[in-house]
């Protein structure tokens, strides 16, 4: 594996890369760039900023207005800060000061993304994103939530203290001319941070984890493939085993009347034959709008792992917890590690700059992690309108006026635009092209997420932990928990109920008969506490078995369950486990789907006349251990075969019914479509004569073995063309890479692409061929040894001139972890210490 080395040359190399990238940009016609002469001034331009940020790795003394007592911040050699504060308020202020010191530009971009204010600093290219964010109204919801907080509430006081810490940095850097270099490059300065800005960022995280366009996909598939065929291929209940962490209906749950959706029948307004051309056009227009948005706007990639074992399964007799949330890769990372000790708090873990609490971490009493629940939390409605009644829609027997508001979007380098936003009772209107479509996203329902996040830091039992999560509406997350005695998991967030017969996986009529009727009681949310087998596994699989009476989402929302099953199998067979067991699992590249399907492929190839290269490719599969390791040629053969097998099976049906995949790739057949993956697995193993193996375009009758042979030959031909004629040289790392793009989109400031192991179905779960999504944080908490281990790719600083910009990347690639330290341990050995003292603000 190729590794970058870090040390004395890191800062110089990064500066050189930035110089090259920016000089290149300066020579291009980029609207909105500032006059670059001032940016590159040798004494007060970009290089001053880089040098200043590099000095963040040194000690410092500062006087901060608003501190009640002294704060000391000790840094580990890798940049992990440990805050020791005399009061809780001082601790939160120090966290704000730290976040802004190292990630201010990232915080500001996320704030602008969430609030629909990117065009102010980047130009007209961000107008579509800004319009969408203002339609969703995240900034309005944050303002309303802020105004609803009582002045003396703990949440408001935490947010105010945090904002003061951020603003101290902004004032310092403005006064000294050392704002992060990218502010100068983009020609603007950050505004003061407000408490509601943190609430805005929590709303953005909710959007990233729960806003979905799947119902739009279902609508287009239904209008092309036909509704019945769509539901056969992508049913509500998964067609394979999911390894749920709750197998039965919860105690006291009602019958299926509130949510026993089976997928049979046709929803009102959806044609079984796909004949409604205007409706299809409207859905395609809506999909086009959603596809034009930045990656953070829509939840696309479900792949996080979390598991826990009870003391009965551990070598020490105490519980262990592991978590590795998978998100989009970026430099800097979305994570910033911080540890805090104050009179009322003691915690450490992964925080998100802009949000003071750690989302995945450990306190003195408990440890926690989370995975995406994947439950459907975005619903679409078609409103009935009439040209004779402009700005009105028909709901529950009467015409009602849309809520109308106008907002002005400032555009750098151009005239401002005024956008008109309409909303119905269901939510904002996203499209009015022939049909009027509204979105009911549960992230817009009032939710006390911030109070829950800080409440987790104090929870001393699973009962307390569950209770502080009760107020969350969205996103729906599986929170895993462990303390010195117990383990547990709960799917936190609200599960909506609908009238019997409603098809929430499709856009629904907005007349009122299909509206949400209420919420599943929190006590009936999927959950488990100290299960008898001593193992909890959460890996985006459907959390419950078929007996659960409430609608959670279709099989297209949930992971196929291969990762969850692998976790259960390995922990069940491992005997007594420890932290080393968990480390191996977090880096496990075993593909459970391959282990089931490849033997059937080899059976299909028996007796066939194969070319020399085909025989050698089959031999690679014959001796494979089913691990997608970097050097594995079989992993390459398997993956390309699986892509071809999916396409050869389902592609003709998509072609026959004119699914517009060329214009909208998200509609296409791919390994990232869980329902199709599960269906093809089930047919291959149990129903090789399934009619869907036949080709509806040519009329050819086929069964699984024939389709497999065709796909295998196609795979070998592609690999031979890409990687040469010797299958032994088809290493997976030549085909599969990981890429960490810079948030600025300046290529030289990112990392990779670099050859990698793992695949979509392994525990070290990544995307398809070029992966820009995967494990962004790894943590192991061992209550037996008292040790907590963490690892994430990237570094603490967003500035390329800092030694803490990419210094964590190599250890992460090599599977190394950083151990939680105490303050005194972190401050030993000459590591830098910051001292923050109360006092009046110094004049610039």
From TrEMBL:
Residues 1-25 form the signal peptide. Binds 1 Ca(2+) ion per dimer. Coiled coil: none annotated. Keywords: Calcium, Hydrolase, Metal-binding, Signal, Zymogen. It comes from the Bacteria. GO terms for molecular function: hydrolase activity, acting on carbon-nitrogen (but not peptide) bonds, in linear amides; metal ion binding. The active site is at residue 304. This is Peptidase S45 penicillin amidase. The lineage of its organism: Bacteria, Bacillati, Bacillota, Bacilli, Bacillales.
